[in-house]
Design brief:
Distance between the termini: 67 Å
Shape: globular
Number of domains: 1
Helix content: 10-25%
CATH class: Mainly Beta
Number of strands: 13
Order of helices and strands: HHEEEEEEHEEEEEEE
Number of helices: 3
Strand content: over 45%
Mean pLDDT: 89
Oligomer: single chain
CATH architecture: Clam
Low-confidence stretches: 1-18
CATH topology: outer membrane lipoprotein receptor (LolB), chain A
């Protein structure tokens, strides 16, 4: 009996290991395929953040593993958040800032893996991340695959993948910001395939209060590197 139980536990462990890779492979395929994701170098997203009926214009410009800039326009006033591999700045005049303020070095270091726009699950081993399949969990009535990924820089994230289409519909993450643990929850919906075959969610929450709706998403367009400077 003990031998049978032991062999059963080994078999389950092997199946789980295979299932993790299988789920990730299907997720990658659902977004356009491995080759297409590896060719993703820039993304520019234009959208509107709705907060209590107020609409705030948002533009997100990303260069893979290089930099990200978020432009925010509210009440006729514009600000931005910039993050690069070695520095970051924030200028939000509607919150009282008079000039760009640099992020602490620790914050920049902790956010490095967030510059990966090709997906941290893609080739996660080669990137130095670790991942495990935690079974399934309910997300608003959908039994999703639950994958935990700990990035090389220490971000502890959990992804919830819808088994009907293999899209990530929810993600939670734990990061250390200036010595304090920060918890973040994001949801994704309204997935659409672009003419070039890439798939993106056009609605999301967790990027600040309210829900952001993207009206336009462009990939692999030229991006002037000067925008990543304050």
């Amino acid at each position: 009996m003990f031998l049978l139980a032991f062999l059963a536990s080994v078999s389950i462990a092997n199946v789980q290991g295979q299932t993790l890779d299988e789920v990730i492979d299907k997720y990658v395929t659902a977004l356009g395929g491995k080759d297409k994701l590896l060719a993703l170098n820039t993304v520019v997203m234009d959208g509107t953040l709705n907060i209590n009926g107020q609409e705030i214009a948002v533009k997100i410009t990303q260069a893979n593993y290089k930099a990200q800039r978020v432009d925010i326009t509210f009440g006729g006033v514009s600000g931005y958040i910039i993050m690069t591999k070695d520095s970051g700045w924030q200028y939000l005049p509607f919150q009282g800032q008079q000039k760009p303020e640099a992020f602490p070095t620790a914050v920049v270091k902790e956010a490095l893996d967030e510059l990966d726009i090709q997906s941290p699950l893609l080739n996660y081993k080669e990137k130095g991340h670790t991942a495990e399949l935690l079974g399934k969990d309910d997300v608003d009535g959908t039994e999703c695959y639950k994958i935990r990924l700990v990035s090389k820089s220490g971000i502890d994230a959990t992804y919830y993948i819808d088994p009907t289409n293999y899209y990530i519909i929810k993600a939670t993450s734990k990061t250390m910001a200036t010595g304090k643990e920060v918890l973040q929850t994001q949801t994704f919906s309204n997935f659409k395939k672009l003419d070039n075959g890439y798939v993106f969610p056009f609605s999301a929450t967790g990027f600040g209060p309210g829900e952001i709706t993207f009206t336009k998403i462009q990939v692999n367009v030229p991006v002037d590197n000067s925008i990543f400077k304050p």
